[in-house]
Recover the amino acids of this structure.
């Protein structure tokens, strides 16, 4: 599995951002980010510069938009034609979602608990969702140093409650990047996992041009498929610094090394009375120069629909930790969390998306 | 087209669409839009509205009741354009005075460049919030 450091919520001068796409990308590259989603408010016109900027810098820019409506902000990714937010009312959001899905795109609820109108218009998510199958992801961490922000903590708890209800929704972070200043607090990184599409991710971009002289139509590229697939599958892990991932497998007493490993976002069947084993990897090397994690004892936690299953104090170093779950019958999902001091604050430092568990008899 | 209007808080979360003809091929469509006031200066009203929002959205932690961190409140109206054939974009930003243009080679930020077809055009004002007692706007569109 290859993990792509990404930032999925950005703005430029095409809406209310204070930088051009070129400036945004230079700032992203300086932070070791390989992929951004351009999600200007209610317009995709910033994507007119996309192919040039990608060719010049090597970064990948996912076409996106932030539906900045009266009752909530919704991120869309990977759609080629503008979908009009203006005609939908507070009870209609799922029709809008259907339109995005009809183009093969994804939708995510942005900063669901940010204070709303008239302070930040439409920022608080007020749309009722009748069918959670339609929501692809929730931006549970928002803005800089998200883990210490109450709105992100509320979003994280909300996401957890939805997982407990049986919904499978991907969690992401989003800087909601409008400007870059010299002494910005640290931002989280959303890592997107690609496996089958490694070749695709590293293939050269297909340069496509539209025949029409102007358009609000955006050409998708192979790398977009990698991003959308990762998001759709939940192959996503979020961190302030070190890369935290894990796999799960059913213990095989004789040939455990050959047991199939399931990765973040996947579903594993754990038959009754079998032991589930997690292999948790902390990588402190990738993007190492882009964050500061002081030497300390970190708290590694395995969380689930049954609450915390496992805790261990670990050092700041690249390592793999094993965790056996002997009573897995009641588990429907597990994820891993990392806590410690970061930027002089004690908080959650990283969390993974879930591996989902079923139990055949 | 040169229109103006006065709205109040009852217009919040509505759209006002002006549909108008462009009868001749225009190499450049220009739009001037402004609204005033931008900011609610009555601190008593601002405090009332902010505290109401803090309560509504669960920001009424008794330990943290600093309504002033959310002041001042602003009106927000955004402008979008649809030509007879397609959506041309939107300018979602706080500026109360905006100048936009659309031509085959260039367009102002938020909009797609391209030919300007003859026919019925639409400019939509999306009223995200009116917090002042009244808000006056003026919209002018012309081609050349």
């Amino acid at each position: 599995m290859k993990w792509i450091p990404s930032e999925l919520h950005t703005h430029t001068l095409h809406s209310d951002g204070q930088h051009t796409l070129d400036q945004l990308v230079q700032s992203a590259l300086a932070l070791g980010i390989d992929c951004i989603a351009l999600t200007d408010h209610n317009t995709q016109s910033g994507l007119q510069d996309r192919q040039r900027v990608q060719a010049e810098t090597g970064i990948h820019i996912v076409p996106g938009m932030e539906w900045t409506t009266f009752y909530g902000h919704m991120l869309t990714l990977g759609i080629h034609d503008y979908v009009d937010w203006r005609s939908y009312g507070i009870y209609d959001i799922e029709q809008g979602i259907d339109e995005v899905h009809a183009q093969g795109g994804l939708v995510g609820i942005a900063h669901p608990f940010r204070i709303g109108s008239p302070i930040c218009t439409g920022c608080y998510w007020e749309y009722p969702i009748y069918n959670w199958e339609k929501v692809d992801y929730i931006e549970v961490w928002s803005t800089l140093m998200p883990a210490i922000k109450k709105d992100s903590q509320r979003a994280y708890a909300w996401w957890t409650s939805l997982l407990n209800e049986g919904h499978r929704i991907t969690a992401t972070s989003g800087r909601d990047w409008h400007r870059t200043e010299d002494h910005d607090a640290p931002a989280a990184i959303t890592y997107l996992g690609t496996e089958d599409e490694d070749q695709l991710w590293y293939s050269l971009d297909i340069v496509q041009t539209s025949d029409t002289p102007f358009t609000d139509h955006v050409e998708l590229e192979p790398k977009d498929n990698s991003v959308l697939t990762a998001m759709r599958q939940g192959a996503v892990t979020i961190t302030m610094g070190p890369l935290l991932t894990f796999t799960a497998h059913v213990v095989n007493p004789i040939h455990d090394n050959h047991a199939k490993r399931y990765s973040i976002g996947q579903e594993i069947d754990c038959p009754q009375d079998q032991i589930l084993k997690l292999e948790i990897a902390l990588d402190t090397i990738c993007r190492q120069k882009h964050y500061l994690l002081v030497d300390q004892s970190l708290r590694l936690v395995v969380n689930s629909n049954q609450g915390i299953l496992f805790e261990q104090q670990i050092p700041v170093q690249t390592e793999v930790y094993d965790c056996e779950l002997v009573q897995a019958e009641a588990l429907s999902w597990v994820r891993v969390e990392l806590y410690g001091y970061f930027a002089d604050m004690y908080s959650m430092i990283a969390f993974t998306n879930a591996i989902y568990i079923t139990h055949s008899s | 087209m040169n229109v103006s209007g006065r709205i109040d808080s009852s217009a919040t979360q509505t759209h006002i669409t002006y549909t108008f003809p462009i009868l001749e091929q225009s190499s450049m469509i220009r739009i001037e839009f402004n609204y005033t006031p931008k900011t609610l200066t009555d601190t008593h009203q601002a405090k009332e509205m902010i505290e109401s929002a803090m309560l509504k959205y669960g920001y009424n932690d008794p330990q943290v009741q600093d309504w002033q961190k959310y002041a001042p409140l602003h009106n927000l109206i955004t402008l979008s354009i649809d030509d007879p054939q397609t959506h041309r974009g939107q300018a979602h930003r706080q500026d109360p005075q905006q100048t936009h243009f659309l031509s085959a080679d260039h367009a102002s930020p938020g909009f797609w460049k391209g030919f300007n077809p003859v026919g019925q055009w639409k400019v939509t004002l999306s009223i995200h919030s009116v917090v002042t007692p009244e808000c006056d706007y003026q919209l002018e569109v012309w081609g050349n």
